[in-house]
Design the sequence.
């Protein structure tokens, strides 16, 4: 039989020796082990970066498309960094198609001038539509096919360190047809002209855009501090019927506040899309602003509200869970309205929620948001930042699609 310790010190040393003999290697759960590998092996960076410019593109399609996947070729180092090219072809689980290409000269005049060309083709077979105006009902969902092809050329000039001006001119071919979503009636069976302008016949447009930008974000691809204020005016001229010419003003204000070494931050955004027409003209319903979905009112279904004008407000609190993964709490508000004079803070729809953001090379490439509103809740998985921050360039598509 072991002898009793003679002193308290000897008892403490014996207990210490016993515990040392029983020590085992630390074990972690499978989810924690997966997250550690994600961080330590830089798996997120490897997936998104690709090889020699060729990579798999995911997402970057309109809300409601389903999961989108396709090849992409993207190089920013051609001609010694003087030429940037991108070619993308995406197909979604709902059979939506998007093909896009652009070539940009970003280093003209010492990097103060950028110029380029852009081409885009989209064929979305089942875009949701709930009717015009803020009083549309959730149960009145219909669907339509939206198809367009765009070609444009433009550029921008850095006037001052934080001030840029730009412009773009192009041509747009549009087509709208019956939607094919199961369980939803086609919009052309519910609405007719003039309730829904453009539902019976579509036209083509010339498109001319002027843009003014104040951008002092610390990193346009993954901002943590600073701001980005954009004013964009676009003129659409109906080249076929002379009935659907209109003007659109887009306002976008983003502000970021980082603290605790920028691992925690507040992000705010206010945006508005306002249209205007001359006598005898109309704004086609498929080119009117919409809110609801993954980019603004996240507690509502995609394209839940539509009218000639729209505004939305978003606030997020973001924090770093670990390198490569952020958490977020958010609140959204917004509304649509037929006349510009109704742009105010009365009768706003609202939603709140939480989300996760996976980052690679300081870019959010995967975002999961869960939003709640008086109409229920919605879950969105997107492959872009909620504010879609991007450097100044020629590919500033004003439509929300």
Sequence:
């Amino acid at each position: 039989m072991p002898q009793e310790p003679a002193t308290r010190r000897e008892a403490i040393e014996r207990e210490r020796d016993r515990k040392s003999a029983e020590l085992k290697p630390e074990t972690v759960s499978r989810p924690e082990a997966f997250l550690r590998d994600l961080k330590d092996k830089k798996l997120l960076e490897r997936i998104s970066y690709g090889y020699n410019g060729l990579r798999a593109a995911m997402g970057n399609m309109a809300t409601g498309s389903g999961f989108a996947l396709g090849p992409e070729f993207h190089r920013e180092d051609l001609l010694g960094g003087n030429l940037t090219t991108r070619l993308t072809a995406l197909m979604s689980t709902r059979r939506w198609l998007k093909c896009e290409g652009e070539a940009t000269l970003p280093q003209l005049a010492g990097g103060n001038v950028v110029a380029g060309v852009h081409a885009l083709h989209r064929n979305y077979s089942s875009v949701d539509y709930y009717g015009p105006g803020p009083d549309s009902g959730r149960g009145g969902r219909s669907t339509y096919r939206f198809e367009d092809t765009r070609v444009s050329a433009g550029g921008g000039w850095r006037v001052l360190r934080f001030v840029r001006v730009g412009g773009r001119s192009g041509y747009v071919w549009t087509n709208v047809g019956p939607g094919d979503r199961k369980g939803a009636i086609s919009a052309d069976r519910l609405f007719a002209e003039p309730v829904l302008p453009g539902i019976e016949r579509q036209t083509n447009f010339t498109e001319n855009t002027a843009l003014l930008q104040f951008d002092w974000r610390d990193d346009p691809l993954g901002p943590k501090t600073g701001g980005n204020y954009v004013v964009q005016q676009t003129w659409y001229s109906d080249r076929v019927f002379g009935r659907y010419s209109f003007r659109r003003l887009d306002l976008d204000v983003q502000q970021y506040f980082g603290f605790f070494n920028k691992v925690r931050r507040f992000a705010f955004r206010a945006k508005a899309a306002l249209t205007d027409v001359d006598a005898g003209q109309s704004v086609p319903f498929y080119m009117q602003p919409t809110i609801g979905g993954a980019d603004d009112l996240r507690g509502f279904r995609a394209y839940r509200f539509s009218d000639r004008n729209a505004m939305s407000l978003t606030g997020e609190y973001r924090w770093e869970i670990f390198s490569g993964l952020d958490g977020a709490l958010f609140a959204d508000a917004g509304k649509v309205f037929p006349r510009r004079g109704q742009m105010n803070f009365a009768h706003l729809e609202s939603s709140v929620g939480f989300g996760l953001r996976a980052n690679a090379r300081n870019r959010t490439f995967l975002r999961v948001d869960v939003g709640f509103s008086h109409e229920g809740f919605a879950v969105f998985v997107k492959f872009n930042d909620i504010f879609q921050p991007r450097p100044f360039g020629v590919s500033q598509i004003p439509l929300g699609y």
Summary: The domain at 127-176+193-382 is CATH 2.40.160.50 (Porin). Residues 8-21 form the longest helix (14 residues). The chain is about 10% helix and 50% strand.
